[in-house]
Amino acid sequence: MAPEGVIIGGWSFVVAAYVVTAAGLVLYAWSLRSRLNKIQSRIGNHERDHG
Amino acid sequence: MPVARPRLSTVSGLLGVVLLLAGSYLGLFVAPPERHMGDVVRIVYVHVPSAWISMLCYTFAFGFAIASLWTRRPRWDHLTTAAVEVGIVLNVLLLVQGMLFARPTWGIWWTWADVRLVFSFLMFLLFAGVLALRAFVDDPARRGTWTAIATITAFVDVPLVYYCVRWWRSLHQMQSTPETMDAAMKLPMRINAFAVLFLAGWFIARRAELERRRQEIDEVAEPAAIPRAGSIAGTGVEA
Question: Which end of chain B, C or N, has fewer beta carbons within 10 A?
Fold first, then answer.
């Protein structure tokens, strides 16, 4: 029997916290990359159209 | 054939990823369970670094905002925006991680009666407001000034978030010190703190670059743009 006042288990919360952290960081990195690619293609289009 | 040298920000990002993997492995599988919280304590190895580096990003933003007002150089405005945005990302993470930590330890996901929680949420709202305000201003000079002023104003909440647990009664525990932590717990905490710091450095550099390119293309494209009613094209000056 576990001693009183000690939290038993809770691994689902731990896993959720690490998954949320990883997902948040990866999604932000992906969003940055995607926005940079978009602006780069705008620059490319502008240079092509206006020399 | 010339060999391209990796940029410092890329090295910082890669280092951040490697350190985060190492720190998370130690935090999840090597560090011991805490006496009262058991395995749930492993959440602090991502929660605390997110909180520290989020506040550090806002502190950088505060410094960049002052430099932006002082020098009026666009570079500082780009860095201010980048640091605010990265701070917001980490702020959101710390709020979600905090709720996941609160449920098994306090028995609740959230309470409006706790100063640390309320000030942390307010910090998110204030800095999100900075980016929202920025989106409404077209003229780059005026946008830079408003961004800097709003960032400096929003920063008032950051010391409140840090010190509120000492100044007022709070469910949230006070800051731990290295003396109050087991050595096996200090290591994953420190590794993850540096990991998030290096990742934040990478993100800020990339986000500032995005802002710089955005302004470049706006400046080039602006003469061809149709002037808005009541303004002189390309100047941002109201007629």
Answer: N
